[in-house]
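Bit of a strange request maybe. I'm writing a small parser for structure token strings and I need a real example to test against, not something I typed by hand. Could someone generate the tokens for this chain?
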Amino acid sequence: QVQLVESGGGSVQSGGSLRLSCAASVQTFGSYTMAWFRQAPGKERECVTAISPKDYTVYYAESVKCRFTISRDNGKNTVYLQMNSLKPEDTDVYYCAGRRGWGTVGVEFNSWGQGTQVTVSS
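Reply from user aminoacidic:
Good idea to test on real output. This should exercise your parser:
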């Protein structure tokens, strides 16, 4: 498992932007698929976006395409989530997650951050 620490959450008005960061404490960060999930109370955890370790293949949920961008810096063991054109429905707790191999299913990730709250007001 990898220790993951998120930062960058907060409150913003609709149409605004936020950038989340997730720092990993592992030397083999470059072999991990990294992803951002979100979960609202009473709802299942949803994979928002993921990025593969080597060829940087990316996945985006339909609801965030063209608004969110995931990126990674393997030299800094950090993954980022740039969120633009935020909507009230993006309000959630956002979790950074990591796994070996490629995939976007939550139960296949074995490393999770503590979560960071994103609140978008209308």
